[in-house]
Amino acid sequence: MIKVAYHPIYAHPLPEGHRFPMLKYELIPGQLLHEGTIEPKNLFSPEPVTEDIILVTHVEAYWLQLRDLTLPVKEQRRIGFPLSQQLIERELRITQGTIDAALFALNDGIAFNIAGGTHHSGSNWGEGFCLLNDQAITANYLLNRKIVTRILIIDLDVHQGNGTAEIFKNEPNVFTFSMHGDKNFPFRKEKSDLDIPLNDGVADNEYLSLLAENLSFAFEKAKPDFVFYLSGVDVLATDKLGKLSLSKSACRERDLMVLKKCKDLNIPVQVSMGGGYSADIKDIVDAHCNTYRVAFDLFT
């Protein structure tokens, strides 16, 4: 059975001006349940991750400032959210949700976290709505426990996975692949193992062609026994921040390409949702739900 991490705190309210980005985390499971893609038994509620697991990936001084709500105001502005105890708990549950999902994926082939994909968080910083790097923490969790030996992180959010690249810059057992807008945030990029920078306005055919070529290369180089997939839908033409021109159908084809590759090679994959900032929330939710629809068609 495909398992999906979700907790009501994922959609917890923020001060005025910050609520819209959180709304999708409530609407995605609601839509998937309504249409019958998932059932209540597919959902699980994660506990908060423990501090010892965080500290394998993040610098202690940074984590303590988050935990104790003492992060300087300038650093909070870099994150984009004002810190609160509820926001920290949210991040802890998201991270444990990705760990749990990865462990489920080892048995079921694939598992999801309805939130996550916090790829802008580096070893000692947060930015771009990211406090702790859920997939990086989970990758280290799997490696340190010798559950897996080689990991490929496929980051197809429109923004470069700079935090993930920084965390694993000296880790030969994790291959980071980021395909992203060249002139988009973050404006100071880190070096992934494979970066594919895209010009503004790239549309369906060019995007899918580039992905097909570089996805095969990434698998050949990484030789993974586990994959993390960050499936941001801010690649859509409707996205307010994305600057690309993908249709919803091409976004779905992108997901199919990645997930079918994992299925055909019998490599388990954990999926976190990443960004999506279209003006109409229906576009965001439908594009994210397509990722689940593709997965349930492939894996069940």
TrEMBL record:
It comes from the Bacteria. GO terms for molecular function: histone deacetylase activity; hydrolase activity. GO terms for biological process: epigenetic regulation of gene expression. Keywords: Hydrolase. The keyword Transferase does not apply. InterPro entries: HDAC_classIV, HDACs, His_deacetylse_dom, His_deacetylse_dom_sf, Ureohydrolase_dom_sf. Residues 24-288 form the Histone deacetylase domain. PANTHER family: HISTONE DEACETYLASE 12, HISTONE DEACETYLASE HDAC1-RELATED. Belongs to the histone deacetylase family. This is Histone deacetylase. It comes from Pedobacter changchengzhani.
